[in-house]
Amino acid sequence: MQGSQERTLKPISTIRKYTELRERSHFIKAFPAVFLFILLLLNGLCYGAQDQNAEKRYKMARQGYDRLASNAALRKHRKNWLRVIDGFRKVYLAYPDDKDIAPKALFMMGRCYNELYGYSRRHSDIQEALERYQVLTERFPDSRLADDALYEIGQIYKRTGRPSSAILAWKQLLQKYPHGSHASLAKHRLLTMGVKLPKAKKHPPAKVSKAQNQKKTSLATEKHPAIIKDIKYWSDEDYTRVVIHSSRPVSIKRGVLPANKRLHLPKRFFLDLSPAYKRLGLKEYIKINNSLLRSVRIAQYAPKTVRVVFDLEKTEKTKVFYLRDPFRIVADAFGSHYSKRASCQMTVKPKGKSTTAPKTKGGYKGKLSLAQQLGLCVRRIVIDPGHGGKDPGARGPTGLREKEVVLKIAKRVAKKLKHDLNCRVILTRRSDRYLPLTQRTAIANARKADLFVSIHANAAPTKRLRGIETYFLNFALDADAMRVAARENATSEKRISELKSILNDIMKNSKVNESSRLARKIQSSLVGTLKKRYRNIRNLGVKQAPFFVLIGARMPSVLVEVSFISNREEERRLKSPAYLDAVASGIAKGIERYITETRMAYAK
User: Which of 459, 492, 497 is nearest to 478 (CA)?
Assistant: First the structure.
């Protein structure tokens, strides 16, 4: 944006300079006709300043390439290639619609990546080269470099052992550019490969087919385009989460592209984000190579559109949603075996003895939940200590920090669950480190957790508020729930109200009923345990609110607010190891009761 402002201001400042000169110059007053001719000439030169500046910047980038190409020692170091590539990338992003400069910048990026591959032998480098050439042919089909790019695409495919794709690229070159500078070379390559060529016929340029199944999510975007800042992913055997970080809200258009065996392309889906620019230096190819996603690619697809392409493998289902403050697009990919759970042969040892639930012989009595009917096991539990690292959470009157308190409680809960239940307990963090909210749920999904419990300490503007409450994911029904959700999400209550547009779709597949039941068991056990040992324990009940940390969880999930750290008495208690032990015991007992109820229902 800065570069475009400079290109706009320079002509205006130049004209102003000569206007002032005209007002002061006696020579100009004497010869108005001569001056008018000069002024018009300068004005024409100013209009060409943008083109001159674009050409100048391209020449500077090209000089960097020439220096690299002429020095064998420099060519051996990857960083030198990437520096030159970045120079051409900056030129392209500064002048993406310049029909002369943009194709040249794209072509040189493709050439650099292609030559770098000769040193690195990295698949990602040759893929980057292909993408630059392909973007050039798609966006600038009338450029004199379009046939050059198609020829190089064929060369790359032949070089990497994909002759059928090479033949297709060269045939396309002859069809679109029969009189181009590389037509004879492409014809020669095809003949040497034994391809019979038909007589040349004039054909109109092939139309690019539109992506299938396109869906668009419209958001209230800002005036200025967003910057796509970063892409993170977390992955396991049957689950992968990709999070795209944006500086502002964007519109999201989703499309599906079928597999193309001739071009060795898998089935893909893409997200077009607009209006948006890709951050300079952002890694454009993320290799994942698991059973779900081969890779994620990001490119400046159009002047104000960033395209993120997901190369699929054995993906059974995908889910895309967004979160605000900061704005993030979340894409989840699930494998075919993700939802499968073993039948419930669960071992619970509340009194030190292990018992196994027998197989059911009859029908079920009463209204049972889906989990009870299926007898789903609870083998893995994820305990999430809220906040951490640069996010301290709430602070008490004497400075006690929420992130430290909840970590101590979480470790105690994990220890008790491991001792009392025959299941695996996973902590999202074991030390004072920062975890994004989207990563916490991703950990639970990736580990195929059966329960997810996030532990927090409450806070309020008034220090008189006290008590314990447990939440499950749903629309907030009262002002207090909205306030708590806004604080834990680090956002505003206005933004919380906007979450309804997100949750309408997500809630269809969420375990709302099971989460509600888990919340009730934890709340009653926690309050009951503390009331036996402490006075003035206030039960604020089970509530529902749209917490970011619970969104996208594929298992029953709750958030526990163990006490008000903003209340002086409860802050003092949270400093006590005995109180923390009691809190942990209450949470663990609530989880155990939830599991036992499921087991007993299965045995009926």
Answer: 497
